[in-house]
Write a structure and sequence with these properties.
The protein has 203 residues and is α/β, with parallel strands linked by helices. The protein is built from 8 helices and 5 strands; from the N terminus they run E-H-E-H-H-H-E-H-E-H-H-E-H. It has one domain: 3-Layer(aba) Sandwich (Rossmann fold). The structure holds adenosine monophosphate.
């Protein structure tokens, strides 16, 4: 069982890598961005509420996001672990996630951040915007605001888990395969350590 936070700025490749990691490690992928887009696509009250923030590149309020994430985790009681993609984005969300997993008898095992510089991010998101159908991928001002929000509100989450000795940074530039291998190297080490600890505790 491994719970992984895939971290990094918008456009750093979290979604792409999560799709491969899910296959290899048999995890449940939860992307709060995807969940919001699903709600917006169905024009639900939650979707309408989220749209006001997403369209400006701002964060959806914590209580809304945490409630949605909570339901999604509880909907998978038999999961062999989770990949959290785009969550947590604030310290409050991180604390809520820790509490939720504790109630389930588990923990966040590792956070891995994909490191990509600002100009590369803007380039990638604009390229994605041509096909993603996402309004927040098309406007450069919104893209830059999302990067600012990441720096101001989200990067403290890296330090929060770093204080627990769980944060790692990998170079997010390179081929999909190369980046995947960098992620797997960390996950395999963390997985081995978790298994050894569990065996020790059994003795
Ligand atoms: P993403 O697909 O992860 O880039 O998310 C797209 C947008 O959804 C973000 O710019 C936010 O407006 C919103 N969003 C996604 N995840 C969260 C979160 N954990 N907290 C607050 N807002 C979020």
């Amino acid at each position: 069982m491994i719970n992984l936070i895939l971290f990094g700025p918008p456009g750093s490749g979290k979604g792409t890598q999560a799709a491969y990691l899910v296959e290899k490690y048999n995890l449940v992928h939860i992307s709060t961005g995807d969940l919001f887009r699903y709600e917006m696509g169905n024009d639900t009250p939650l979707g309408q509420q989220a749209k006001a923030y997403i369209s400006k590149g701002e964060l959806v309020p914590d209580e809304v996001t945490i409630g949605m994430l909570h339901n999604k985790v509880l909907a998978h009681p038999d999961a062999g672990g989770f990949i959290f993609d785009g969550f947590p984005r604030t310290i409050l969300q991180a604390e809520a996630l820790d509490r939720l997993l504790e109630e389930e008898g588990s923990v966040v095992h590792v956070l891995i951040a994909l490191n990509v510089d600002d100009e590369e991010i803007v380039k990638r998101i604009k390229l994605r915007g041509a096909t993603s159908g996402r309004a927040d991928d098309l406007d450069e001002n919104i893209i830059r605001n999302r990067i600012e929000v990441y720096k101001n509100e989200t990067t403290p989450v890296y330090d929060y888990y770093d204080q627990q000795g769980k944060s790692h940074m990998v170079d997010g530039i390179g081929s999909i395969d190369d980046i995947f291998n960098r992620l797997c190297a960390i996950i395999d080490t963390v997985g081995d350590n978790a298994m050894l600890t569990a065996q020790e505790e059994k003795k």
